[in-house]
């Protein structure tokens, strides 16, 4: 256990998950799952404001006493340290952060639809009610009950501290060593929406 500025790092962690579902035109459902449990060891010190977005050179907070580390634990697990922010992202902020990130990396922006936003919101509420990430167990029912998209994907973020939308995307999913970065950079996604409940965040992707 490392110590930063005389404070012991808390034991709570942030978990990320990655899940893909493919719904074919025939109506049959094939499941493609990458359970990339993504742990973050957060610190309560040095709260930061959102940085500017730069292609493959994202600005980190000026935290002289904070030690940034990223570790791939196994094929599904990444552990990193991330300082808390002074607010939790809203769904709109997360959507804007995702599109800004994609634009900065020359990837097409995403469009919202009422249907995909409803799914994202419900999925976030389910994480909060569950008290922890559900391992995508609740996502399948939404994919099977909709007919708007042929392909849908989901990335999850959850923990015990607030994070801005920019930091969820840039310092969370973008720094993953286990598949999340590839998911949020996928040019085949054309639709998407974020959902926020408590300190849980969900982003759902779709392709028609």
What does this structure look like?
By secondary structure, the protein is an alpha+beta fold. It is built from five helices and ten strands; from the N terminus they run E-E-E-E-E-E-E-H-H-H-E-H-H-E-E. A five-stranded antiparallel β-sheet has the order 4-3-8-10-9. A three-stranded mixed β-sheet has the order 5-7-6, with no helix packed on it. The chain has a two-stranded antiparallel sheet with strand order 1-2. Helix 1 packs across helix 4. The longest helix has 17 residues, at 114-130. Residues 1-60 have low confidence and may be disordered.
The CATH topology is Pathogenesis-related Protein p14a
* Radius of gyration (Å): 16 Å
Strands in their spatial order, largest beta sheet: 4-3-8-10-9
CATH architecture assignment name: 3-Layer(aba) Sandwich
Give the uncertain stretches in residue-range form: 1-60
Overall geometric form: globular
Helix-and-strand structural type: alpha+beta
In the residues, how many domains can be counted? 1
What does the average pLDDT come to?
74
Q: How big a fraction of the residues is strand?
A: 25-35%
Oligomer: single chain
Secondary-structure element series: EEEEEEEHHHEHHEE
State the separation between the terminal residues, measured CA to CA: 46 Å
């Amino acid at each position: 256990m490392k110590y930063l500025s005389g404070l012991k790092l808390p034991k709570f962690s942030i978990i990320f998950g990655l899940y893909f579902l493919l719904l074919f035109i025939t109506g049959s459902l094939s499941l493609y799952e990458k359970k990339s449990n993504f742990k973050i060891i957060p610190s309560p010190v040095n709260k930061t404001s959102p940085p500017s977005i730069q292609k493959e050179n994202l600005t980190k907070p000026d935290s002289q006493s904070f030690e940034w580390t990223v570790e791939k634990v196994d094929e599904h697990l990444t552990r990193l340290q991330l300082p808390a922010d002074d607010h939790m992202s809203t769904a709109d902020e997360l959507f804007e952060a995702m599109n800004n990130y994609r634009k900065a990396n020359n990837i097409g922006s995403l469009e919202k639809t009422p249907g995909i936003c409803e799914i994202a919101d419900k999925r976030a509420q389910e994480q909060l009610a569950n008290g922890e990430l559900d391992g995508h167990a609740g996502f399948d029912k939404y994919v099977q009950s909709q007919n708007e998209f042929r392909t849908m994907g989901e990335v999850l973020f959850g923990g015990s501290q607030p994070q801005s939308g920019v930091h969820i995307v840039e310092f969370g999913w973008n720094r993953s060593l286990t598949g999340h970065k590839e998911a949020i950079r996928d040019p085949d996604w054309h639709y998407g929406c974020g959902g926020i409940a408590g300190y849980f965040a969900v982003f759902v992707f779709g392709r028609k």
